[in-house]
Amino acid sequence: MSTEKSPSSNESGFSKAVRFVEKRWIRLWSLLVILFLYAPIVVIVLFSFERGAFSSFPWDGFTLEWYRTLLETPSAINATFNSLFVAVFVTFFGTILGTFGAIALVRHEFRLKEAYRMLVIAPMTIPGLILGVALLMMFNYLEISRSLRTVIIGQLVFVVPFVLVTVSSRLAGFDPTLEEAARDLGASKWTVYRRVTLPLLAPGIISGGLFAFTLSFDDFLIAFFTSGVENTLPIYIFSTIQRSQSPVINAISTIALILSMLLITASLYFRD
After folding, report:
1. Which residues are paired to 50 by β-bridges?
2. Whole-angstrom distance between the N-terminal and C-terminal Cα of the chain?
3. In this structure, is residue 55 part of a structural domain?
4. Which residues, in sequence order, are CB contacts of 227 under 8 Å at separation 6+?
5. Each residue of 153-181: pLDDT tens digit?
6. How many domains does the chain have?
């Protein structure tokens, strides 16, 4: 009887590992990317429920104390309401401006259209630090005192282009024959916009508005340079971390994270 071993039985452990990676490298790479992106977020959420005052392993136990402490901290509650106040105004005006800008960009032909396109989209490509410094210098030059109003103005500069792009993508697939049919039936221009155009654009408009709210609520750089004595939530978190490493910050971050994820999910739902 032959005692020769098959080539596969002589294969080294290293060769087997190489073959395993070759077959499953996409799955392994995807797993590493997901771990890299979401590990810090998972850590924050986990430590928001830790009993100990210092975030460390092993856990000292499960608790909701830091969420109760958050509700009893007036400065944190005030900062949250400030962020909500700013986000509501930015969403309202940003959605209106972005929607009308998208209609002008997609539905109309005019001179310097490409220049208009580049100008309205440019704030998306400008680093937030540069944009924040530019806004601060402008407000100082105009002698405008910084407050939540200047935060709203500053955030509108970079939020409107995102709404415009979102609504434009909806407009690109819009069937203009529906409007023509409504006009043929005797509808006025305003009636066509109100009864046909806006309802069909509603998913894109709602998606853009939710996206604007998320961008505004989570914004730090613009708010840092344009706010006065009234802090928004991201600035409050930053200033609190500078003073101490309180687990309450983990609780605040977790709540803000959940809110942002819900808004982004809803935005994607309406966009589709």
Report:
1. 62
2. 67
3. yes
4. 146, 147, 148, 150, 151, 235
5. 999 998 999 999 888 888 877 777 777 78
6. 2
